Each structure stands twice: as C-alpha cells, then as structure tokens.
Amino acid sequence: MVMIRQWVATGFAGILAISMGSAVQSQPKTEARWTIEDIVTAPEVTDIALNGTATRAAYVVKTADIGRDRPIATLNVINLHDGQKKVLLRDRIISGLRMVPGTNDWSVLADLGAGQQLYRIGADFSIRVELAHRPLARVGVSDGSTNFGSLDMPLDVGILSYAWSPDGKWLWYSSIRPRISRAVLFDTEVAHQLGVRRPQKSADIIYHLRSIDGVANEVAVRPPTDRIAQFFGGTVAWTGEEVQFSIEDRPSDGPIRYERRGVRLSDRLVRVLADWPASPFARLPPGPHGGRLTTLGIGHARKLVEVSETRTLRDYGKVDFLIDDPRSAGSWRSRDGNATILGTRYLEHPRYGLVLINKNQAHAISSNLSLTKCDFTPDLKRGVCIRESLSHAPEIVSVRPDEAKIDFIAAVSDHHSAISELQTTPATWNSRGGYPASGFVVWPRHYRPGIRYPAVIVTHGSDADERFCRDGFQWNYPVQFFAEQGYFVLLVNDPTPSQSARLSAAYARWGSGTGDLPAAEVQQLIWLEGVGAFEAAITQMIEQGLVDPDRVGIAGYSRGSQMANVTMTQSTMFRAASSGDGGYLEPSAYPRLMKSYDAIFGGSPFGPAIENYRRLSPSLRADKASGPVLFQMATPQGGAIDFYRALRAANIPAQIDLYPGRDSSSDEAHIFTIPSNRMLAMRENIVWFDFWLKGKAPAQQPFPDRGAIWSEMATSSPLRPAEINGSTP
Amino acid sequence: MVMIRQWVATGFAGILAISMGSAVQSQPKTEARWTIEDIVTAPEVTDIALNGTATRAAYVVKTADIGRDRPIATLNVINLHDGQKKVLLRDRIISGLRMVPGTNDWSVLADLGAGQQLYRIGADFSIRVELAHRPLARVGVSDGSTNFGSLDMPLDVGILSYAWSPDGKWLWYSSIRPRISRAVLFDTEVAHQLGVRRPQKSADIIYHLRSIDGVANEVAVRPPTDRIAQFFGGTVAWTGEEVQFSIEDRPSDGPIRYERRGVRLSDRLVRVLADWPASPFARLPPGPHGGRLTTLGIGHARKLVEVSETRTLRDYGKVDFLIDDPRSAGSWRSRDGNATILGTRYLEHPRYGLVLINKNQAHAISSNLSLTKCDFTPDLKRGVCIRESLSHAPEIVSVRPDEAKIDFIAAVSDHHSAISELQTTPATWNSRGGYPASGFVVWPRHYRPGIRYPAVIVTHGSDADERFCRDGFQWNYPVQFFAEQGYFVLLVNDPTPSQSARLSAAYARWGSGTGDLPAAEVQQLIWLEGVGAFEAAITQMIEQGLVDPDRVGIAGYSRGSQMANVTMTQSTMFRAASSGDGGYLEPSAYPRLMKSYDAIFGGSPFGPAIENYRRLSPSLRADKASGPVLFQMATPQGGAIDFYRALRAANIPAQIDLYPGRDSSSDEAHIFTIPSNRMLAMRENIVWFDFWLKGKAPAQQPFPDRGAIWSEMATSSPLRPAEINGSTP
Q1: Is residue A501 within 8 Å of A450, Cβ to Cβ?
Q2: Is B622 on the interface with A (CB under 8 A)?
Q3: ipTM of the complex as predicted
Q4: Are B201 and A664 a contacting pair at CB < 8 A?
Q5: Cβ pair B610:A606 closer than 8 A
Q6: H helical segments located in B70-222
Q7: What is the DSSP letter of B32?
Q8: B180–A613: do the CB atoms touch at under 8 Å?
Q9: In chain B, what residues touch A659 (CB-CB under 8 Å)?
Q10: Cα B46 from chain centre
Q11: Chain A contact for B641, CB < 8 A?
C-alpha cells in the first residue's frame, strides 16, 4: 500500500490569500463590479489541446454575443512562452478540438458555412477542410430537426464526432442519417409519443472508418436511442489491429444492454468483445499496472485502487475526491504506460483537481481553485490547464505534474478577470437526518458586520462548485449581481449520495427502480433531507447574525426547481421563490413518468398512492406555501402550470413566464441560449426578490405591466412583501 | 296562424320504393358491390352555384386520389338542360364557389400554383385570376404553419374568404398575416400552451374591402381567436351604404363577447351596430315579414315562427325539423323579400330538406332522401340541389320550390351510383331514461331471415343521417363493407338534446358551464343514457332474431370514441370495440380540460371528486371492460394511451396505433386525409372485428406482425374471441 501525498499548488500565490470559512473581505483587484451583461458573457472554456511540440495550446471559449443576441464560441491559440493569444475562429458552435497525432496541427468541428465538418488548423494557423460529409442533417430543438440532446440550437451536421488513431493515420467519425419512414406505430411506440412537444425526425447515427489510404467505409449504424453514439462518439479505443467502440441498446420493453465491439482495420470485420468495463459512457485509462482505476468505499472510507484482471487490489490510499465525474478535467495515460493522470472532483469543498498515479503512489494536485480542462504531453511531464473558481475568472496555466507546479500564463477574459472578486466561502451544512450538504456562501459586496442581510439560496443538484459563473448551475439567477445588490447568496448542493449507502440506495431506486425502498423513504432522502439542509444553512446564517430571517428566498431550475417547489410547501422559512423550467413531482404527469413516479409515490395518483402525492406534490400542498413563486419556463411544462394554478387558487402570489425561442419553430432551451432572454430573466429575478423580500417597488421592472399585477397580488394575499426596515440594506 | 303543408317530393319515383322500418331488400340497380376503395373515393359535394342565367350550375366535389395518395377536389360544371358535365379544375382544395352577382361568371378559391387565390370562371369556362393577395401564409396542422381548424393539410393562403356585394361591384375578402412577435408569455397565456403538440405560428386575419374602382383597403384586423373570422369570413351582409360583419372576442379571462360592426362604403368609417342576433356564427335571412326566423319549443311542440322587431310572433305551425343546423343546405331570400328558403334537418329520421316560407305559410320540402347543397335563382322560383342518402349516391337535381318539384339531372359519380344499394332503415331507440336516440339499421347484403348475424354499432354524436358515405360520420369504419361481409351495422346517434330541456341543460352545463346540474347527472344524461340507447338498439335486434348476442361490437371516433370507451366499461353486451382518435374523460387530462371536467366530474381527480371519475373514466374501470379495444389515432392523445395501458394492465386485449402524417413535420388529421391511411385503418377494423367477434384468423391482416400478438392476447386473456358457430355467417 502506498500513501497519498497531498500537494497544494503553489503556482499562483494569490489564491492562498482567499480565506475560507470566515467573513474577511477579499482584496479587490480593481473597483470593477458585476453587471448582468458580465454574467451573460462569462467565458467557459470547453476544449483545450496542446500542439505537437507543446509550444502552443488551442482552446475553445463559449460565451455570448449580446449584439447579435446569440451564443458564440471562439477558437483561440496561445503561445505558452509569452502568453500571446490570437482568435482563429468565431462560430456559433465549435467543438471536438484535438491535436492531430504525429503532427503539429489541431483538428476541430465547426460550421464554416457547409454544416458542421472537420477542419484542420495548421501550425501557421491556416484552416482547411480535413473531412466533409454530406448530406447534412439538421439537429436541435426546432421543428423539422432531429433532437440530439447535446445540441440545443439548430445546427446542420455533416460530422457529429470523430477520433484519430494514435498514429494519426486512421479516422473514426460519425454522421447522422434521418429516417424517412412513414410507418404506423403500435403500442409502446405510441406511448413514447405521450406529451411530446415539437415531434422530431428520427435519425440513425452512422459510424465511418477512414483508412490510411483515405477511403471511408460505413462500419456500423446505431439507432437514436444509443446515447453512447449520440453523445460520446462510441467511446473509441484503438489497438494495433482494431478500433473498439461501445453500443447501448435500449429496447422499449426490457433492460438496457451494453456491448463493446471491435472493427478489424484490415478488413472491417466486426466482432463482439468479451470484456465490459463498469461505466459504459466513459472509459478511464488503465492504471500504471494495467489494471482498472476506481474508488471503493463511501464517505471518509473512500480509497483509490487499481483492480487487476485477476481481481487483486492495489491500494493508493484514502481520497476525498471522485475520479469518474464527467465534469472533471479528463484522463491521460503516459506513452510508456507507467503513469496516469485523472481529473478529480472533491466532495466537501466541491472543486476540480488532478491526481497523478505512478507505479508506487498517487499525488493529488489541488488548490482552492479548480483545474477544469487540461491537456498533457505524451510523457505527462508537461501540461496546460484552465484554472478557475466561483469568484476567480478562468485563466490558462501551465502544469508540471511531477512537481505539482502550476504557473499562470494568461487570463481567458481580461474583462472578467478585472472584476473585483466577490467574497466566497465554502461550507457544509447537515440535514436533519445528518447528511452533509456542501455549498458556498457568497457575501454581499460591502458586507458590514452587525447588519442582517436578505438571503437567497441557489441550488441545482451537485453543481455548486468552484467553476466560474456557470449557466449550468446558476441559470438565470444572477448570483454575482445579487451579491452586488446586498444579498447573501447561498449556493447549496443536495446531500451527495456518494457519501451514504442509504442515500445511494434512494437515488438508485429513483433512477433505475432497483431495490425496494418504500416511497416515503425515497421522498425523505431525496427531497426532504435536502429541504432540511437548506433550513440548516439559513438557520446557521441567522444564528451568526448575518441574515434577516424575514427576508429569505430560494431559487433553482430543473432539479433545483423540484427543491424550490418542495421547500416552499414544506418549510416555513422562505418568503419567496423562483422556480426555473421544472415541474416534476406533480401528479398529472404520472402517465409520462410512471417508472420514476412509482419509486417516489408507489403508484398512480388515481389509486391509494394519492396519499404519497399529498405528502410531497407541490400543487397538492399549495395552500401551505410560505411565499410567492415565480416560474420562468423554456417550455410550458404541465407540472409548473399545475403548481402555478394551485398557488393562485390558494391566493398565493405566483407568476409563470414562457420565454420565447429564436422563432416560432423552436423553443428556448432548458439552459437558456438566447442572451436577451437570459438578461430579461435575470432582471426579473432581481426585481421579484427585491419586491417580495425587500418590499421594494420594482423600479427597473423588465416587464412594466407586471408591477401592478404583483402589487395587486400582494394586497389581496395574506402573504405580503416584507416591510422595509429602515436600518437594513 | 298559418299551417304547414308537408309535401313529399315527387321528382324521383325510385325513392318511394325504399321502405322504412321493415326488412324488405332494396332493388339492386346492378350487382356492383362496395369495396374499401369505393368508400375512400366516395364523392362529397361541398359547393354548388347556379350561373346568372340559371342554365348551368358549377359544383365542387371532394374525393380522394388513391394513386397520388391525397385528397382531391374537382370543380365541375353541368348543363342543366341536358345533364352534360365537364371538369374544369382539379386541385387539392377548392372552396368558396359563388356566382358573381350581375354576371354569368362564377368565382372560386383555389390554389393554381400561387397559393389560394380568387379565380373567376367565365361563361366560356375560361379561368383567370380575379384577385391575388401576397404574401402567402402557410396554414394547416404542420410544423411552421398557422393552425386554422378548418384546414387540415398544409396550404399556402393568399385569400382566406370573400364576399361579393349584391351588385357584384364591391368585394370583401380576408387574408392571413402571421405574427412574428417573440414576446414573453405570462400566466394564462402559458397555461394555454399546456399539452400543445406542434406549436403553431399565431396569425391575424385581415379584412379588406375592394371598392368599385378596384382599390383595396384594410378595414379590420382580427385575432386568431375570432372564430367568425377564421371560419365564416365575418358573416358579411351588405346594405346600400355599408358592409356589416361580426366579431368574436374571447378574452383569456372573462366571457366571450360578440359584436356586429358596419364599414361605411363611402369612407371606410367603422361603427358598432346596436342589433345583435341570436346566433353569431350564422345569420339566417329575415322572414317574409322582415322578422327573425326561429323555432320555439322542444320536441313535438316545436314551432316555426317569425319574430318581429317589436317581439310579436308569427306562427308558421309545428315542425319536426330544425332550421339552424350548419349541415343543412343553406338559406336564401327572394329579391323582393316576400319569400325565404331555409335548409332543414329532421330529428326523427335524420335527413335534410328545405322549407319555403311565404307571407302566409311555410311549405316543407322533404323526402326520404336529403337535399344537402342547393342554390336558387334570385326569385327563388328555380334551383339546383344535391340529393343523396345513406345508401343513395349524390346526384344533381332541379328544384321548383313552389311546386316542391324535384327532377333528377345527373349522378355526381356514375361509379358510385352504379353500386347496388344497401338496405338501410331508419329507426329510433329509447334510452333507459326514455330519451329517444335516432339512427339507422344497415342490413347485411344477403340477409336471410332466421339467421342471427354479428353486429357493429357505429356512432358519432348526431352525424348518423341521410348523407352518403361521409367520412365525418363513419370515419375509418367501413359501414358498407361490413354490410357486404355479413354484419348488421347500426348507426346510432346520441339522444338529441334538442328534444328535452333536461338533456339541453346537461349539454349547456358541459359546453359552457352554465347551470348547476350535479356531475353525476351530467354523466348520466350525456354518456350513460347514450349507452342505454345502444343497449336498447342491440336488445331490439336480438329480440327480433336478427343479431347474435355473442357477436356485438361498437366503433366510434372523437365523440364516438367517448361513447365506445364508456360503453365497453359500463355495459356487458359488447364483445369488441374500435375507438378512434379520442381519449376524453381520462383523469390525467384534468389540467388541460378543467372547465369541462369540472362540469362532468365536479373538480380535480386529486381531491374528493375522484369518486366521480371512478364512476365514468374508462381507464379507472378497465378491469370491468367487456371486450378488447382497438385505438386508431391521428395524434398520440394521452387519454387513449391511459386507457390502452389500463386495459393491458387488466389483461384485456387492446392495441393502440398511431397513423403517420404526410411527413415527419405533420400528423394525420383528426378525420384522416391520407387515402392509404384510411384504407389501412378500414382493413384493420374489418380484421379486428372479424377476429374478436367471428373468431376468424385475419387472413388479410394489413399489419401481418399483429396477428400473432392478437392471438397471444386472446390466449392469455379471459376475454376470448367468440367461437365460430357453423350455421352462422
């Protein structure tokens, strides 16, 4: 057994100055303050790749073009010696950035006018078509398209995904072929259409293999239900003789089945492989001893181990992180096989790091900042990463894994790096059942001790972590702007199931129906313990004299909307809520969600199980709501409409909004993509909480007609806005 | 008071040979028999118009083009002297055929390649554009279109509707202008999106007035919620000085409001008129005394009256028909105002006739055949009509109203007129509560006394009447082919509300929420009394030795699907059902149908009203079903999926089919429009009832894979197909 060595990255001294768990203000770099526009344009680096000589890195930044009111991606290149940056491409979507093995070029998927195709970026930054596939297939959540979950805006796809062989000579790629069948559907196929809005074209995914001599052949056809094909391009691996890929079969009646197949390069012969790893969607590279890397144990007993083919265990010691989180930085194996680097995600102070695993030991590389995207040289001696945190804008850093040395090279967005950092402290709160929930406190910009501030909880599953201003977590809740406006913002995760066998059992029962946990216990563990954690967080803030108990709100979208809706109808601590694009847990959705509802409620709401719905379904508890609820929707989900109506019927103030799509043929995406929608929705959230928590008449109402309606609801409801206390902000 | 004179039309002697209420076979004209193709191509005359000299009539026939697999309309002209016919146009949709006043021309709406525009047909049959409006707007149930309920297939509309001034010099017309707003929607606007499949573009309807000098002006803009604008072109009337039209306002919260407005021809000034007639959707012309024509009283006490402006009544005597049924032939007023002709619909033997109302008396013009479309000369002395019945193919006849003289001119479809007529007898059956239900018995082609036959009820509200082979009634249930195959087919209407104040009150409670009839009574009157009428019809047939009690089925679409589903779960007499494109009455639809469900069930199914759902909702009574149910769907309606699943969960054989639209961007229409879909669905109904009622293995299964599934369901379910009895057909 080898012990783990915990290093704290030393590359950037500034980060050490950020104190944790106390209320000391951070040192502002400048006096620049957060605006709504800053939030909408916050940069997210989605890809990074070194070139063959490791002198440069290319990276893709996702942001928003406010002027043209659309999301935008840029392909950038940075000289790692002098930090000089250059924008090579601007496009709506750029993805799949990779080094072309054995060259000094990169390859990338982009649409330069001929649909999404594969381009090659030369060392001289020239851009040329590497491979174009036709006909194009329109994908996205738009009428007449094929809906591939990963793409939310209409995009004409030639090449969907690709993978180079290690020598750069063979190319595996996938394309989309719409089905044009007009068959009559029967039984379960019809039931699958239940509640479908904007029915989509069905399509197959075609795998192609381009050989050394440039000839491409179709090697497999996968149905649209194969998520490995849709999202992961087959999770391809290359041996000398064959290219291996994974398939998923999801029959309408029967269990999901996974299989790994190999295509022999010499003659395209396809065989089914015997071995099948644990996770079908991601394949971690082997460890330095050729075994499978994984973690065993739960909570503080978790260990990093390597399991050999003969099932012997090599123990690398206890770890407080997970190695298979898809949000982490990735995985790499050295060419000689003696070392592996894995991206890590920490559970207690949720952030991203790396672990370098050598023959004898594992070295965790972490700091209070996250490393969210990386690439390494083939010997794993040098690398480049994106470093960021909740309050720290992303920057490009060089990494020397052996020394855990991290050096700042350049900011990704000088504008965002210039904004004065907000004080953010990680924290953990225990639910009533004793399940810890991790999270963060974002302090009001000019916090003054002795004053009680209003507070808003923002929640979205486990996405509260050290990543910068992510729309996938904070959605249309302008965390940073709330802090500028004098709110405490508490970013609170659900108690993570990976810390408890009982929580894990509840999530397994919910997700796949396994086990026999009773409905009441599933409800308690997945929703009510979460409410308890929120209450614990607020209670602590009140006890510390930081938060005014009469001015507390909650906001969350999707999973967060479940928690916001349940919290408002179970707890009495919250005076207002904003619930985004959700509507789960309402009984009327039973026919669409039978499987998961059976786990939560024990059956149909039209039978005896109705008692279990009465215990949890927000609309059936609307008369118990502790405050007004705003629903901001991308699609008109029935559950949200049900809860909205039930609140109004109970004379609880409520409003439901449907934000428009780009045009009448599409809806806004679940995570909003249209900058003007995001800005409107953020402004609406500000005035909503200002009105109900601070009693402030909305001066900057983005929808001027609504002010009078809110006032009228406030007057006629027993739930009035909190009075303004002269001495509080 | 003047008495009504009942004339029996004498123009066509053959009709008198059809006996009523007895089982005598009709005289076959030839030995031609009904095929499925004959049903799909059955002609329906949708428009007829005399020319200015009344020497010719033009008429539009709606039918199907099996080869090109689409509906088709033809514009035909017939010489009224010699019966010579000529086809002038073939197009997918032809509508709005009218004489151009003061000329010998016709005008008609058709799409000859430039969208739906107004064309003029000259006396020499030349066709030229009368008026073209641009830009075009795409309407229909297809992605990216504007859904105007009257049109089920995508159509590019320039001109939606039009009306000539009496002198033919002014032209009122409407066009469609799609809205391009991308506004955020709030509250009830969002709730309106609940359960919407294929969201449509919103559009306004623009009214234009073209003056004598050919200049057109916009005179009004109506929202898409104005059904008078959508379907009736404003129900326009002309005075010398102004053109008057009606508007409907349907605010999302508040009662519907109607208003009549006038546009002054001289300066387009719009004013609101004081008067407002009873029916906003149809304006019957004034009676010979300038008063309003209507019927008063219910059932056998119904009288035809003319109400003057001073509310005095002129009584034209008792009548057994209604004058405001939109399916009847139309209405005309003589130029001198001394006479009015109205289309009538009879209640007991449901058919269409005319009533000529002179100063002193009213003459009903009727026979056992219907007059379904007509046009008359300005003096009402001569006219042309379409005469048809359930078994008698449509033909063009001349009409002299004063003498009630009707003369055959020509068949509309020689092919269909050559099919040997089936024996069809009108009948009336009393529900348990004593409410009579009208209907017809269609006899098996080669009926032999002493043998008991299988029977199928076909039902669709009040549409069982003397019209020829209408898809709007019989849908995909091939009534004629069932009779050819040795079935009795009973066409049964709901007990008509117009015969009973109590039934009317139940329908009013259901339709508009008025009154306070308890839910249980609404259920009884609108659904359970109907089941009782079906049972009475079958019981009578069994008692008369005609029908085998073990081989009785039921089929209905839409309103008929409600009745089929309720019947199968309330009665024990029916061994199989086919339920078409419905799903109403299921509790999961409550959020979408609150208003009407409140009337039927008394509230949400998630509260105490669940007891009322248990009494009526088919899925909650699936274990009581008396036989298998086939669901043929145009769209995947949730209620049908709920009932299908509940039947399968109760081990009752059931199948749900979704028939495809023309392509992936559209669904099949509620009344199927694609000939291949209709033919498949009809064949499927034949084999479904043959299998479950006759125990016949489906030799001609249109979906070969389904045979084994049916057999397996039959084997595993307690509900097996009836055994074949050697002596019966």
Answers
A1: no
A2: no
A3: 0.90
A4: yes
A5: yes
A6: 188-191
A7: B
A8: no
A9: 184
A10: 12
A11: yes
Question: Is the per-residue pLDDT at A347 higher than 60?
Answer: yes
Where are the alpha helices (H) located in A366-450, listed in sequence order?
414-417
Find the angle CA(A190)-CA(A191)-CA(A196) to the nearest 5 degrees. 90
Whether residue A185 lies within 8 A of chain B, CB to CB, comes out as yes
Each residue's pLDDT tens digit, A652-666? 999 999 999 988 888
Per the CB < 8 A criterion, the answer to whether B582 and B558 are in contact is yes
B149: confidence class by pLDDT, cuts 50, 70, 90: low
Average of pLDDT values for A442-446? 97
Task: Determine the average pLDDT of the residues in A517-522.
Answer: 97
pLDDT tens-digit series, residues B575-617: 999 999 999 999 999 999 999 999 999 999 999 999 999 999 9
Give the containing element (helix H, strand E) for B532: helix B529-543
- Condensed to tens digits (0 to 9), the pLDDT of residues A707-717 reads 999 999 999 98
Nearest to A184 among B193, B642, B680 (CB): B680
Q: Which residues 450-489 of B are in CB contact (within 8 Å) with A?
A: none
Tokens matching residue A170 = 């063979």
Task: Kindly list the distances between the CA atom of residue B581 and the CA atoms of A14, A559, B557, B629, B689, in Å, as whole numbers in the listed order.
Answer: 67, 35, 6, 13, 18
pLDDT at A10: 35
Q: Enter the pTM of the model.
A: 0.92
Task: Check if the beta carbon of residue A261 is closer than 8 Å to that of residue A219.
Answer: no
Distance CA B448, CA A25 (A): 100
Contact status of A590 with chain B (Cβ, < 8 Å): yes
DSSP H helices, A377-418, are: 414-417
Residue A638 to residue B195, Cβ atoms within 8 A? yes
Nearest to B186 among A186, A588, A657 (CB): A657
3-class SS at A649? helix
Question: Residue A313 has which token pair?
Answer: 């265990």
**Is A260 in contact with A273 (CB distance < 8 Å)?**
yes
Using the Cβ of A212 and the Cβ atoms of chain B, whether some distance falls under 8 Å is answered with no
How far lies B142's CA from each of A382, A637, A660, B4, B223, in Å?
56, 22, 20, 50, 20
Q: Of the ranges A379-388, A476-485, A685-694, B242-251, which one carries the lowest mean pLDDT score?
A: B242-251
**A-chain residues within 8 Å CB-CB of B202?**
664
Report how far residue B335's alpha carbon sits from residue B332's, in angstroms, rounded to the nearest whole number: 9
The values of phi and psi at residue A419, to 5°, are -70, 135
In which band, very low, low, confident or very high, does the pLDDT at A721 lie, cut at 50, 70 and 90?
low
Partner B, chain A 119-148, Cβ-Cβ below 8 Å: 143-144
Tokens of A62: 């996702």
Average pLDDT of chain A? 91
- A310 and chain B in contact, CB less than 8 A: no
pLDDT band at A16 (very low <50, low <70, confident <90, very high): very low
Asked if residues A296 and A305 have their Cβ atoms less than 8 Å apart, the reply is yes
Cα–Cα distance for residue pair A640/A643, rounded to 1 Å: 5
Indicate the residue of A191, A606, A613 with minimum beta-carbon distance to B613.
A606
Contact B190 A143 (CB under 8 A): no
Distance of alpha carbon B681 from alpha carbon A186, whole angstroms? 13
Note the pLDDT tens digit of each residue in A47-77: 999 999 999 999 999 999 999 999 999 999 9
Backbone torsions φ then ψ of B305, nearest 5 degrees = -135, 160
Q: A254-309: per-residue pLDDT in tens?
A: 778 899 999 999 999 999 998 665 566 667 889 999 999 999 998 889 999 999 88
State which amino acid sits at residue B125. Answer: F
Residue A724 is predicted with a pLDDT of 38
- SS3 for B255? coil
DSSP line for B487-530: -EEEEEPPPPGGG-HHHHHHHHHHHH--S---HHHHHIIIIIHH
Is A144 within 8 Å of B198 when comparing Cβ atoms? Answer: no
Residues of A391-425 as b/e, b for ≥16 C-beta within 10 angstroms?
bbbbbbbbbebeebebeebbbbbeebbebbbbbbb
